[in-house]
């Protein structure tokens, strides 16, 4: 990555630090880079979009199964449904070839998900949910790290938002699919909720086999780029302010820099905080809509426009965020949007069903805007191989506590008002907002100190330390 010298094929690529480049050469260079970006987009993201979509679909389809008879058949009274959602995720990160690792995990969780269609006891469901979480553990951190190795910092947010749209497609498609599968109730002696797991799990396993041939490897090993294109990719990333900010050796000092980095901790709390409203609406939206007075099939169908609006919001804010090279304000804006929604739901007493349904749109939109933003913001502000590898894994691992919180705050005996559920989700939303404010302030001050030369003393350290300090290098500037 950063600091690697371009090869001979890059001799015609202009150095952005030099002013003696003709406008014609600049135009050619821009066109070449655009062609490279389009090629990257065609090869890197489509299959990862599908993998992430299937992962999310298989993780949350239990919410669709719940209102199709799962609760009654497996006697999930009290908080048993919540406990079945309480599964570990993103706890295992392994460093293997992406084109085998990601599809391998996908195939495993597809089979596990399909098996849930044949479970007959509450204990069996919990065990399978546990293994589902374990099989999905390394997928998302791996996707973040892999994709960050292909794009410059201010090209990453819109693509991360696009990737996160897969969760909205999964939610909408899951509701639509569950609506269709409901008509299979009784076929071959199986209830509708069983068919949800069987069909979606089998589809995941089939896609996993195809994905082996489509998932890209690391940039230096990928087969879809020519030698000249690989050199150009290295040149682009090196010119993105990371050429000096490397961390290629994992030693004691590097570990100290990683674990003491406030950005990693704050960004993880942002991701966790905005994740609670996101997971809450995903896990419990069909149930909440059912209690608004809709029939089961109507509740499934009405989840779709909520996801469509959230997806559009993520794409628009992702585009604007990259355009203006800014993240913080968009995260806080999402917090305010969701706050309005929570205000309505916490005071829903005499409100109409339509008003409460509108509040679900606001909560989902506000929460989901911040999810991809938090991930891209941290990725933008850490540099070096080991720093990026650790930060993405840690952020997703800590952030997935949101799933644990969200799964256990909507208590059946508080239906339909759910004060604990909505109140806790609202509080966690502003854990994210305050963490974002702290992270913004920290990096703003740090950028100013570096501009004033107050971090140049770090360059007096031994050369091997200077080459391995990552984003602590005085030349690195943070994205606000």
From TrEMBL:
Alphabetical keyword list: Membrane, Transmembrane, Transmembrane helix, Transport
Chain segments annotated as transmembrane: 99-120, 126-148, 160-181, 193-216, 264-284, 304-321, 328-346, 358-378, 390-411, 423-445
GO-annotated molecular function: transmembrane transporter activity
Keyword tRNA-binding included in the entry's annotation: no
Compartment(s) where it occurs, according to its Swiss-Prot or TrEMBL record: Membrane
Coiled-coil ranges per UniProt: none
Keyword Transmembrane helix on entry: yes
Major facilitator superfamily (MFS) profile domain span: 27-450
Membrane topology recorded in Swiss-Prot or TrEMBL: Multi-pass membrane protein
GO CC aspect terms: membrane
Chain intervals for the UniProt region annotation (Disordered): 1-26
Gene3D superfamilies, per the entry: MFS general substrate transporter like domains
Main location: membrane
Pfam families in the record: MFS_1
Protein name: Major facilitator superfamily (MFS) profile domain-containing protein
Species whose genome carries this gene: Neoarthrinium moseri
């Amino acid at each position: 990555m950063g600091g690697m010298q371009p090869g001979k094929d890059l001799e015609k690529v202009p150095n952005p630090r030099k002013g003696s480049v003709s406008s014609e050469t600049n135009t050619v260079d821009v066109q070449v880079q655009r062609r490279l970006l389009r090629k990257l987009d065609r090869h890197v993201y489509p299959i990862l979009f599908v993998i992430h979509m299937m992962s999310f679909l298989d993780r949350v389809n239990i919410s669709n199964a719940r209102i199709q008879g799962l609760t009654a058949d497996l006697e999930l009274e009290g908080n048993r449904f919540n406990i079945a959602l309480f599964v570990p995720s993103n706890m295992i990160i392994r460093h293997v070839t992406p084109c085998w690792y990601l599809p391998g995990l996908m195939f495993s969780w597809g089979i596990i998900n399909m098996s849930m269609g044949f479970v007959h006891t509450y204990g069996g469901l919990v065990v399978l949910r546990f293994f589902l979480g374990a099989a999905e553990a390394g997928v998302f951190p791996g996707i973040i790290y892999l994709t960050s190795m292909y794009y410059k910092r201010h090209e990453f947010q819109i693509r991360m938002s696009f990737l996160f749209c897969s969760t909205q497609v999964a939610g909408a498609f899951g509701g639509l699919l569950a609506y269709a599968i409901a008509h299979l109730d009784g076929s071959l002696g199986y209830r509708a909720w069983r068919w949800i797991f069987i069909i979606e799990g089998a589809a995941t396993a089939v896609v996993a086999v195809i994905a082996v041939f489509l998932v890209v490897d690391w940039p230096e090993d990928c087969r879809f780029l020519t030698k000249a294109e690989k050199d150009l990719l290295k040149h682009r990333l090196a010119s993105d302010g990371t050429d000096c900010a490397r961390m290629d050796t994992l030693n004691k000092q590097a570990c100290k820099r990683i674990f003491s980095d406030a950005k990693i901790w704050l960004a993880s709390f942002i991701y966790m905080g905005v994740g609670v409203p996101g997971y809450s609406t995903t896990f419990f939206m069909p149930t909440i809509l059912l209690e608004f007075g809709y029939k089961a099939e109507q509740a499934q169908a009405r989840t779709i426009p909520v996801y469509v609006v959230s997806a559009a919001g993520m794409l628009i804010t992702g585009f604007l965020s990259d355009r203006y090279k800014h993240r913080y304000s968009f995260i806080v804006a999402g917090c305010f949007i969701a706050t309005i929604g929570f205000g309505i739901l916490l005071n829903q007493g005499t409100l109409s069903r339509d008003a409460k349904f509108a509040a679900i749109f606001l909560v989902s939109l506000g929460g989901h805007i911040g999810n991809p933003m938090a991930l891209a913001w941290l990725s933008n502000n850490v540099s070096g191989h080991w720093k990026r590898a650790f930060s993405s894994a840690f952020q997703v691992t800590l952030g997935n506590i949101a799933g644990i919180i969200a799964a256990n705050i909507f208590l059946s005996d508080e239906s339909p008002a759910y004060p604990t559920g909505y109140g806790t989700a609202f509080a966690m939303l502003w854990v994210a907002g305050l963490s974002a404010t702290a992270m913004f302030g920290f990096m703003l001050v740090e950028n100013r100190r570096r501009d004033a030369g107050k971090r140049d003393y770090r360059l007096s350290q031994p050369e091997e330390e200077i080459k391995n300090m990552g984003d602590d290098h005085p030349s690195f500037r943070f994205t606000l």
